[in-house]
Amino acid sequence: GVPLVGALIGRKVVRSSPGHRRFQAAMLLLLAMTPFFVVIGAMLRSRHNQLMPAQVVVAGGVDRGVYNEISSTIAARLKAATDVPASMVETGGSEDNRERLLSRQVDLAPMQASSINSDQLCVVAPLFDEAAHLLVHPTETTGTPEILDFEFVLGKPIAVGPEQSGSRQTADMILESLELSPQDCPRQVISWNELGSPDAPSVALICVGRGSPLVADLLQTGWQLIPIPQTGKILREHPTLKRAEIEPTHYAGADIPPQGVETVGMTAFLAARRDAPSALVEATLDVLYQPPEIISEMITRKSAAEWQQLDLHHTARHYYASLRAEEE
Questions:
Q1: How far apart, in whole angstroms, are the C-alpha atoms of residue 116 and residue 313?
Q2: Does 2 score more than 70 pLDDT?
Q3: From residue 23, how far is each of 13, 14, 18, 165, 294 by CA, in Å?
Q4: Which residues contact 241 (CB under 8 A, 6 or more apart)?
Q5: pTM
Q6: Which three-class secondary structure state does DSSP give residue 118?
Q7: How many Å apart are CA 228 and CA 111, to the nearest integer?
């Protein structure tokens, strides 16, 4: 006896009771309200997705690397500031961090610029500048000139780091620009902890933050830094790299010339998925810049606010824009 139902199934309804007409009116009202329910549901879902997650996992890096120091501090500060469980997990480096972010195993991850190459990833903050450290084992430098040059390493196997590290990628870029094929200088993909083994290469190319405990330990045991030549050519061919210098102040007590050692480097960024909750990104930025500085080479909040050309998370872009507005 409901006229609307009868019309839909092709039956003529001659008479309808008041109850049938009220039922039809309710159906029409529900149908008219459906778009509003859909919009409200989407708004509630979006709001829920922007809340802090139940727990936060921050990717680190290789043992004794700067990534571990930064990520463990971020996790500890997030836990203290938000009462949300937060932890750091050691990884194989930038490429490993990229895969873990994409597979949702971690929520935040430091990585080199060249590894942020997915539409699903974006930048939360620039962290610090890494530098390529070209090092030679002390057994190779006995009886050689006080200051070595790049010619010394030609033809020798070079340790380029773990398979999933950004350091390995950067080493490949540098050696490619210097026109050194794997046949000329064989690359050995090994853990940095293996450099002390008898079978390890006597030359290593490590791209890490200046002041790295890993490099500091090698320098203390007699390894020697060598300048990287043709930096202009390298930078033209690989725009993600930049000119850098390793100075005596970066490694106190190490045998580094007063003028420093010329090299190239790359900026490390804190990255997240593009759909990362706004509450997580904002809380991370707050704890990232709270004193004391996590590392001495950290890019300051004021400097980071000038990096507006980056593919920033929308919350990070608003964070830095608000900072600039306050200073004007």
A1: 13
A2: no
A3: 15, 17, 9, 66, 66
A4: 170, 173, 174, 234, 235, 264, 265, 266
A5: 0.80
A6: coil
A7: 23
